[in-house]
Structure formats: structure tokens, C-alpha cells
Amino acid sequence: MTADLEKNFHLALEKSQNLQMLEELRVRYLGKQGMITEALKSLGAMDPETRKQRGAELNRLRALCQEALSVQKEKLEEQALTLKLASEKVDLTLPTLALQKGTHHLITQTTEEIVRYFERFGFKVEEGPDIETEEHNFNALNIPPHHPARQNHDTFYVDAAAEPLLLRTHTSTVQIRTFKKGELPLRVLAPGRVYRADYDATHLPMFHQIEGFIVEEGIHLGHLKSTLIDFCRAFFNKNDLKTRFRPSFFPFTEPSFEMDIFGNGRWLEVLGCGMIHPQVLRNVGLDPKKHQGFAFGMGVERFAMLKYEVNDIRNFVTGDVRWNRQMSVSRAFGT
Ligand code: DAH
Questions:
Q1: Is residue 98 part of a domain?
Q2: How would residue 164 be classed by pLDDT, with cut points 50, 70 and 90?
Q3: Which of 40, 67, 70, 221 is at 20 to 30 A from 135, Cα to Cα?
């Protein structure tokens, strides 16, 4: 009897391949109405001798079944866990899927770098429109019609209005717009897009300039020179950067200069500058006897090309994401 029970239990145990089957097996043998439990209940009706012997056998069998069940349960639980871990495996060596962050375009970065520098000295940013009047772009800046200087500023004209409109050829227009507001003294930085009919490795039909100017009492050439020398040394990160000012001509400054820096064994022209021409001040109703100022104009592309070693200006506008990313903020701000 007990031997049969035991044999059948072991056969059933072998077939119990999951926890649910195992539990069913336990109930069938050891549950309240299980076979072993029932057999134990039946002991009371037996004579003392048989009861003693059967009782001992059944108790041994019960202990044996309990032990076997718990061993098998542990085994199945472990198997289930291994299976679960394998199916939920996380590969920590996979590269991340985070989206690549964008960066500002090198021109924006360079503009900000320059603006931030001058802001420390009290310069405020002013802006003017890309589509300008001939008056602001030329006449008021002491470049009358037929002045030869206009030849270097060939641009795109818009003949929609009564007054001739054009795509501004320089940001010097912002001088006139700011002076007309009549607030003095002033220190202004005017970044923006400018346009000319040019296109090659060093010229774009649309490029960026930053115009800077000061009108204050007693401003002289010494201020102009030290301001620009200090700026170039800071921008190019070179305290002993050699610079020079060459006499030049601009209709809106007198005297006028071209500033050069020394790099890679040669002089490189970086910007134009000068003392604001008395006629420009008169044109906007200021008295040149009372007000003096200096002005400078620089090309953002040119400064970026020199600092970041860009050899073809067209790289700025091809929109090649790889190039733009390579020229990212980390380079511009040295982080
Ligand atoms: N507006 C000039 C240009 O685009 C650059 C320039 C030269 C600006 C001398 C100035 C200056 O303010 O003083 O060619």
C-alpha cells in the first residue's frame, strides 16, 4: 500500500514540470483530502498493532513527500528565475540612444563671443534692418551718389518704394539710426547680416559684420587703438599678439585705418576703423566740435576663419551638419 503510494508519488513528481503542477501534486497527496492525509485518518479504525506499523510508514512517507516537494519546488523556482533573467536581459554595453544635441552655428557663436567681450566695457547691442534706405547705407555716411566708394559696395536694389531701397552693404547704417535717436554718450555694438554681389572662397553674397562705435566727450585715437588691440589679444587668446594700424580711407571716418594682426609669419588685415568723420556727425545734427567718437567694422566670418582655421568661407553656408557639429560651442568657448 505505502509502497504503491510512494512509487506513484515519485512518478507524478517527475512529471511535474512547473510550479502549478507541483502544487496540484502536493494537494493530491498532502492536502486536507490528500491520499496520505486520508490514509492517516483511517488509522483510528485499525487494531493497535497494524496502526503502529502503518502509522510509522505513513509518517515516514509524509515526511519524504514534503521533503521531495520542497526540493523540487526550489529547483523549479530557480529554473523560472533563470528563464526570466535571460528573457529580460539588459545589454549595458549598447551605445545610448539619446538624441544628439544641436549647437549654435559658428557664426552665431563668434558673434556672441565678440558681443560678450564688448559688453564688459558698457557697449550695448543695436540692430538695423537688412533692407535699408540709400540714405542710411550711403548718403548719411558721407558716401554721396557717384562716390567711387560705392563701387566696392555693389549690392541688390529693391525698387518697390519711392525711396531707393537696397540690401545693406555694411552695418555702419546702424551708426546713423542710433545717432538719430539722439541719446548721448553711447557705446554701441551692431551685429548683423550684410550683402554684396560677391562669391568666392573668401566672399559670400551674404555675410556678417559687427559695427562698433563710441561717441563720448574727449574720445581720441588712443582709445580706438587700445580698445581694438585689447580686443584682438583677448579674442585670439594671445597677450603678445602683434598688431598694426595702416592709414586707409573710408568716407565716414577721418583719419581711417586698417588694422592688421601678425600671425603665421605674415600680416593679416582684420578690420577697418577710424575717428567718426565730422560730416557724418553733422549729417545727423551733432556738433563735431562737441562730440567725438570712433568706429570700427569687422567681418564675423573673417574673425571666425582666422581663429578656427576655416579655409573656405563657403563652409559656413553649405549646411553640412558634420561640419557645423565639429565647429561646436566646445571649441568656441574652450570648455
Ligand atoms: N563699413 C565698412 C565696410 O563694410 C567697415 C568699416 C570701416 C566700418 C571703417 C567702420 C570703420 O566703422 O570705421 O567696408
A1: no
A2: confident
A3: 221
